[in-house]
């Protein structure tokens, strides 16, 4: 293991009786997200940053069956965005054979480094995907106003909460064949839309972040509600912006 920690120290990073420990939370939350249809078929997931440690689920596994001992731990301090397959200095690698860290790692990293987020959630929710399909191919963003659930969303995902009278805008980026190839376009969209709390990926899903896992989760719930109602409004030919 390319870690400076002893085996015992590395294991102690993920084995805890505390239900709020990130390794326990990732396992529990992925089960909850699976029931919502957010992480079925191995896609999607959540990463949590606690201080100098980033906790990551394995790639390509049934996310609802992850156990704490399957969790990877990377130091937050990195010289560059840690892409899967590149040289990475893990603090802890699961002993189970064949596991590699989530392909979403560099995208989660965008949220940690560009927004100082404490957690980032990636869902394959059909509400998010359908919403991108109902936007014209060249649409750069999704906008919605005059919805109560907008008040559960924070400026930039980590700032003050929006008001009922604010218009929520979320950029839409094109999908790529490989998840990690979304890294640069996600970062560019985050630069261009500093107030956006999430990034929609056309025909794929959404990335949502927050200061804490609780805020990332509740914002994901508010956004998923807004995506669902927006789909229904578009199908009913109702305008998404305005209160008429
Ligand atoms: C059917 S999942 C395709 C890959 C994907 O979109 C994804 O989110 C994979 O994430 P993982 O954590 O399993 O690498
Ligand atoms: Zn995905």
CATH superfamily: Class II aldolase/adducin N-terminal domain
What is the helix content?
25-40%
Give the names of the bound compounds.
the ligand CSCCC(=O)C(=O)COP(=O)(O)O, zinc ion
- The CATH topology is given as L-fuculose-1-phosphate Aldolase
Main beta sheet strand tally, sense and closure: 8 strands, mixed
Kindly report how far apart the N and C termini lie: 60 Å
> How many structural domains?
1
Estimate the strand proportion: 15-25%
The spatial strand order of the largest sheet comes to: 3-2-1-4-8-7-6-5
Secondary-structure element series: HHEEEHEHEEHEEH
Number of strands: 8
The general outline is elongated
**Class of secondary structure makeup:** alpha+beta
Q: Spans of 5+ residues with little confidence (pLDDT < 50)? A: none
Main location: cytoplasm
Enzyme class: lyase
Keywords: Amino-acid biosynthesis, Cytoplasm, Lyase, Metal-binding, Methionine biosynthesis, Zinc
Binding site for substrate: 104
Describe the structure.
The chain contains 6 helices and 8 strands. It has one domain: L-fuculose-1-phosphate Aldolase. The protein is elongated. The protein has 244 residues and is of the alpha+beta class. It starts with 6 loop residues before the first helix and ends in a 9-residue tail after the last helix. The mean pLDDT is 96. The protein has an 8-stranded mixed sheet with strand order 3-2-1-4-8-7-6-5, sandwiched between helices. α3 runs parallel beside α5 and α4 packs across α6. Zinc ion (ZN) binds next to loops. GO terms for molecular function: methylthioribulose 1-phosphate dehydratase activity; zinc ion binding. It is an enzyme of class 4 (lyase). Pathway: Amino-acid biosynthesis; L-methionine biosynthesis via salvage pathway; L-methionine from S-methyl-5-thio-alpha-D-ribose 1-phosphate: step 2/6. Keywords: Amino-acid biosynthesis, Cytoplasm, Lyase, Metal-binding, Methionine biosynthesis, Zinc. It catalyses: 5-(methylsulfanyl)-D-ribulose 1-phosphate = 5-methylsulfanyl-2,3-dioxopentyl phosphate + H2O.
């Amino acid at each position: 293991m390319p870690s400076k920690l002893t085996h015992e120290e590395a294991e102690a990073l993920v084995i805890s009786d505390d239900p709020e420990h990130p390794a326990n939370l990732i396992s529990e939350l992925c089960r909850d997200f699976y029931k919502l249809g957010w992480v079925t078929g191995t896609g999607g997931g959540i990463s949590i940053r606690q201080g100098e440690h980033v906790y990551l689920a394995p790639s390509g596994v049934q996310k609802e069956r992850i156990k704490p001992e399957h969790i990877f731990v990377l130091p937050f301090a990195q010289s560059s965005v840690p892409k899967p397959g590149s040289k990475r200095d893990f603090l802890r690698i699961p002993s189970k054979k064949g596991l590699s860290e989530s392909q979403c790692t560099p995208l989660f990293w965008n949220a940690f480094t560009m927004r100082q987020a404490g957690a980032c959630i990636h869902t394959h929710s059909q509400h998010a995907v359908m919403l991108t399909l109902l936007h014209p191919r060249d649409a750069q963003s999704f906008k919605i106003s005059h919805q109560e659930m907008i008040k559960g969303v924070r400026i930039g995902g980590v700032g003050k909460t929006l008001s009922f009278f604010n218009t929520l805008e979320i950029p839409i980026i094109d999908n790529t064949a490989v998840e990690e190839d979304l890294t640069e376009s996600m970062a560019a969209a985050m630069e261009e839309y500093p107030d956006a709390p999430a990034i929609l990926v056309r025909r794929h899903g959404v990335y949502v972040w927050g200061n804490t896992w609780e805020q990332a989760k509740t914002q994901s719930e508010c956004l998923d509600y807004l995506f669902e109602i927006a789909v229904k409004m578009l199908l009913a030919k109702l305008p998404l912006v305005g209160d008429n």
